[in-house]
Amino acid sequence: MQQVADVKPSSTLPVSETTFADLLRPLIDPGFRLALAMLHDAQAAEDAVQEASFIAWRKLGRMHDQGRLRPWFLGIVANKCRNARRNKWSAGVTLGVPDVLAVPSPEERTLRGADLRRAIARLGYDDRLVVVLYFYVDMPLDELAAVTRSSAGAARARLYRAINKLRPGVAIEEALR
User: Does the pLDDT of residue 9 top 50, yes or no?
Assistant: First the structure.
């Protein structure tokens, strides 16, 4: 198996490992949070981010606008998560929170958090992706649209529909401003 250091990005312009690491360093944490929210398994999330980093290293030369690095990299992470969920070995991965808590928590906030995590886990992949990117990774709608490869309007509409699936009947207009 080839070492990452031996593989050069597909570009005519040389990109050093240090430069690449400096570009990618601030994106690893949001990438991991995205992967963890999508896969519900820390090890699988680490694997997805590592594979996405390798792909980003190989394809960095094809990227023309380095200002769009964040949505580009998170799009790669999202695709890795989608592929991982398709595999049989990750089909049984759960949040680790049982559907019915054996001992009710005394804190309402904890219960609401568990309910929210279960509700997000029940969303379809594309709906969960936009909710996690917008609320958990704090990604603006234009970058979210780039990750989902849609227009800003389509991304906003998907986010609106996903939030309505989470909490039907709740006014959400203020969250989308």
Answer: no
Predicted pLDDT at 13: 42
Number of CB atoms found within 10 A of residue 125's CB: 12
DSSP string over 89-127 = GGTT---S--SS-SS--S-HHHHHHHHHHHHHHHS-HHH
Contact 52, 71 (CB under 8 A): no
Look up the pTM and report it.
0.56
- The C-alpha atoms of residue 56 and residue 50 are separated, in whole angstroms, by 10
Rounded average pLDDT over 52-73 = 82
Report whether 133 contacts 140 (CB < 8 A). no
- Give the residue carrying structure tokens 């649209």: 145
| Tokens 């958990």, residue located | 136
The ranges assigned to domains in the chain are: 10-93
**pLDDT, tens digit (0-9, with 9 covering 90-100), for 88-138:** 454 444 545 444 444 444 555 565 566 777 778 888 888 888 988 888 888
Structure tokens given for 51: 């594979």
Which residues are CB-contacts of 44 (< 8 A; sequence separation ≥ 6)? 35, 84, 90, 93
CATH 1.10.1740 corresponds to the domain 10-93 = yes
Q: Which of 28, 6, 26, 21 minimizes the C-alpha distance to 60? A: 21
